[in-house]
């Protein structure tokens, strides 16, 4: 078992928070490639990792959410996948080293339907393979598949990871409405069971929902003995102002909600869009003595899902790193709107 999983078996762990939100606050251009800042402005990324480490995060996530060829091609950087991922891991590893923290290699979805991938003559598994090979070669402790909405895409990504390394564990995290269904109408409980059978060490949810909605979602998820669950909510619902999505997160509120998520069985808890070191510091303190919930029933029955309009959801435009909220709030007409 990996050092990451060993620790996760013994305690409720605090993850880090948003990367894109912090980079935008540091001065990054929203229309630019935030992942490439690992090479052009490494000091910004390094400072964010350092601040999360000091706040008490036990896991630092690389700035590689969109560092795959399908997304980087929009910035004419599709040939730089390996270089960007290597640079990102180096920065996270430097911040993690002193405290013995874990480095999670972030892998996001391609942002395209499988049909669109085929129309371009691409191979979805190969897109993931190039990024995953770079992250694994750089020595990440865990792969964090985050903000996926399509089970098929997650299945492809996880299969490639398993082919490349059976030893490095994977977190499979979906963006999901609080009712507990993917946009395809598939219950998250069924998806988690299939992901675990395919080799996922941790299953969870991130983005799309605020903290309280994430607790309600976790209430609908049973935890069987031995299962590991993660939760990385947004900092509530954003307010759009002058081209930016702004949040008003309260650290004390995050501390209280972190304990509630732990009570619902979440073992790895962090933040997504809009969260920062202040929220992570409050969560880390609140989780310091949180008891482990190794099994629990679902506390709320999931409602029946609405009929999906198509089997998979496209992430419309490339969002700034972790800030998928804008594209999920405003999907194209052909895409079923996900509740945000």
Structure description:
There is one protein chain. With 340 residues, the protein is of the alpha/beta class. Helix content is 40%, strand content 12%. The protein contains 14 helices and ten strands. The protein is globular, with a radius of gyration of 18 Å.
Keywords:
eight-stranded parallel beta sheet, alpha/beta, globular, two-stranded antiparallel ribbon, 14 helices, 340 residues
What's the layout of helices and strands?
Layout: H1 3-10, E1 13-14, H2 20-26, H3 37-40, H4 42-55, E2 59-61, H5 69-72, H6 81-97, E3 102-107, H7 114-119, H8 124-137, E4 142-148, H9 151-164, E5 170-174, H10 188-197, E6 202-206, H11 211-219, E7 229-232, E8 239-241, E9 244-246, H12 251-263, E10 266-269, H13 277-287, H14 325-329
Parallel strand pairs: 1-10, 2-3, 3-4, 4-5, 5-6, 6-7, 7-10
Antiparallel strand pairs: 8-9
